[in-house]
Write a structure and sequence with these properties.
- The complex is a heterodimer of chains A (312) and B (111).
- Chain A is 26% helix and 20% strand.
- By secondary structure, chain A is α+β, with helices and mostly antiparallel strands.
- Chain A has 3 domains: 80 residues, DnaJ domain (Helix Hairpins, Orthogonal Bundle); 66 residues, Sandwich (HSP40/DNAj peptide-binding domain), CATH 2.60.260.20; 92 residues, Sandwich (HSP40/DNAj peptide-binding domain), CATH 2.60.260.20.
- In chain A, 23% of the residues are buried.
- Chain B has 111 residues and is mainly α.
- Chain B has 2 domains: 58 residues, Orthogonal Bundle (Multidrug-efflux Transporter Regulator, Chain: A, Domain 2); 52 residues.
- Chain B contains 5 helices and 2 strands, in the order H-H-E-E-H-H-H.
- The mean pLDDT of chain B is 84.
- The chains are: A alpha+beta (312), B mainly alpha (111).
Chain lengths: 312, 111
């Protein structure tokens, strides 16, 4: 650490090195050791001082020649530099460089954690004793699977939050797939007395085995027997609020659509959409000899053409 | 605060060079009543740019990258310093707990 260390050794060059070699050696060392590139590294600073002093001497051909002839020695060649930039930065002994400092590269930390939001979230350069940071808390995103009928009729669901607490979410009747629910103030706490963020709940409605939804209306296919189709009758039909009895008119076809008023999806004004029932005539599972005999002897069955209007 | 001429003199830079550095955003003088004023920090930064250019042979593109990274590092160091000061105010047990947590997190990286 001696100040009068041999400048050739300090720069790691031979005595007969050219000026260009000396300059190159100095550049390589300066890149590694410059105090502004090594904030907080005392050792680098000490070595940089020696390297600078050595280059002061050897970098100048005239001074170097005098040194080589023994006219001057290495001591006293070190002229301390006044300040480095780092002394002004990061709230060092002399402040003033804050406006150059950037935390833009750490914004991801600010998003992930309250403490880091406080650290890195400050806007630009605050300067010494800048204004107290007051920020609204972050919104908390959730994804919620809602049963089809809960979405139609409304329900209350309990969410478990990451911190172990729970949150009761009222699902309004008639909510749509992909709709966002915003629970005010249920997000992350605010910073510096700022208001808390909101919980943002994205709703995904699960499909139903029987019902389909079209806007405010419910659609379903209802299998009916051949005799119900031919003779008409009263059948039980499922609706979102429970089964109702519906009259099937005499002579109903497959594809006939019947409407049940007010059994669809709840609307905001308290009314409901309708349920549309599409009839599907369904023969018995196993072939029925009686039915076959009857149809074979049924003269009318050969006289009408159901494909009349369906010619290519 | 330094006037423009005094700044150039003390930074041992020609006016044209200083103008170019300001235009590049490497130096940001404070505007005050029409005239630009420079701080001691600006002076030290100018010396750093000078060192990068002259002593280390970095070209203009390289200097832009280095300054950007340096500004990030100093911003990060300030944040770490603040964090460390904030941690120092915590009770002993909490700080020990944080220390242990950090140790376990760093173990796999060493292996």
């Amino acid at each position: 650490m001696s100040v009068s260390a041999d400048p050739y050794t300090v720069l790691g060059v031979k005595r007969e090195a050219t000026q260009d070699e000396i300059r190159k050696a100095y550049r390589a060392l300066a890149k590694k050791l410059h105090p502004d590139l090594n904030p907080g590294n005392k050792e680098a600073e000490e070595r940089f001082k020696q390297v600078s002093a050595a280059y002061d001497l050897l970098g100048d051909a005239e001074k170097r020649a005098r040194f080589d002839r023994g006219e001057i020695d290495a001591s006293g060649a070190e002229t301390p530099r006044q300040n480095y930039y780092r002394d002004f930065a990061e709230g060092g002994p002399r402040a003033g460089a804050q406006r150059y400092e950037s935390s833009a590269g750490f914004a991801d930390f600010a998003e992930s954690d309250d403490i880091f939001a406080e650290l890195f979230g400050r806007q630009g350069a605050g300067g010494a004793g800048g204004a107290q940071l007051r920020m609204r808390g972050a919104d908390l995103p959730f994804h919620l699977h809602v049963d089809f009928l809960d979405a139609v009729n409304g329900a209350t669901r309990r969410l478990s939050l990451p911190d172990g607490s729970t949150l009761d979410v009222a699902i309004p009747p008639g909510i749509r797939d992909g709709q966002m629910l915003r629970l005010k103030g249920k997000g992350r706490p605010g910073i510096g007395g700022g208001p808390p963020g909101d919980a943002l709940i994205e709703v995904e409605i699960m499909p139903h085995p029987v019902f389909r939804r079209e806007g405010d209306d419910i659609r379903l296919e209802l299998p009916i027997s051949l005799s119900e189709a031919v003779l008409g009758g009263r059948v039980d039909v499922p609706t979102p609020t429970g089964p109702v009895t519906m009259t099937i008119p005499k002579g109903s076809n497959s594809g006939t659509i019947l409407r049940i008023r007010g059994k669809g999806v709840s609307r905001r004004d308290g009314t409901r959409g309708d349920e549309y029932v599409t009839l599907t005539i369904t023969l018995p599972k196993d072939p029925d000899p009686d039915l076959e005999n009857f149809v074979a002897g049924w003269a009318g069955g050969k006289r009408y053409n159901p494909r009349e209007g369906a010619k290519g | 605060m330094l006037e423009y001429e005094e700044f150039c003199l003390r930074a041992e830079l020609e006016g044209g060079v200083v103008e170019a550095w300001i235009a590049a955003g490497w130096l940001i003088p404070e505007p005050s009543e029409g005239a630009r004023r420079f701080s001691e920090a600006d002076l030290a930064r100018a010396r750093l740019i000078h060192d990068l250019h002259e002593d280390m042979g970095v070209n203009d593109e390289g200097i832009a990258v280095i300054l950007d990274l340096i500004d990030q590092i100093y911003g990060l160091r300030r944040s770490l310093r603040d964090l460390s000061a904030a941690l120092a105010t915590l009770p002993e047990a909490t700080r020990t707990r944080i220390q242990e947590e950090l140790r376990t997190r760093r173990l796999p990286a060493r292996a």
